[in-house]
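## retry 2 of 3
previous attempt timed out at serialization; input unchanged, resubmitting
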Amino acid sequence: MEGIPHILACDVGNTAIHFAHVHGEDVTPQQRLRTSELAGLGEAIAAMWRDMPEPRKIIAASVNASGLKALEAAGEALDQDVLVIGRDLPLPIDTDLAHPESVGVDRLCCAAAAYDRLGAACVVADFGTAVTIDCVSNEGVFLGGAILPGLSMSAEGLHHGTAQLPRVQPRHVDWVFGKDTEQAIAGGLVRGAQGALRELVETYATALGRWPIVILTGGDAHFICRRPGSEGLVQAIVEDLALRGVAAAYYRTLLKRPPPTRQP
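## retry succeeded, writing output
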């Protein structure tokens, strides 16, 4: 590990910026700031940066232009450039897509981190603001996936699109039959997402000709699977998967073997 740069890895999402100090396989607990409340971002980034040994870099994956602008301002205050995957660094995984640059780079980072660790066909499901359920082949090629509304987004849609349904927060569901409206909505949100995950994994497995390893990430992942590894479908929940993938994208540039883009 001596000489390998320390990475301040940042995942600039739709509703929050997550960041952590990554060095090889070691990742500090990630911090989170909502993109609507970024007044303390510069101070938080500076505090983490001061604790990181040299050599060090700030690397980001971003799907939110305004959030990235705030992060770059924090980097400028430290006299540091923020290297952005897809702009300053190559994408972290080979793809079977005609236009890989149009895919959310956070999805590619999660897929790359999962495959780097597993070395086998896998499905990465990110239960965040939106739900993305993506597949990587046994050869390490990002094949694509599906995008669904996140649990909170679906709950808000039900509340705003109807006259009487209440606003319901996602929660653990330990009942079969919803005995009131709130239970019925919560059960529909969680069981519906679980069903979508299972259906897509089974569809991917048929196309692959093998059963992929299933990894979850994202803030709502624990609602979908409470006991990974013991419930059959899901093998693990990795909360910092995207940040691991952000760092991996930079480490690949050090090896001078950025992955090619496979054309269909």
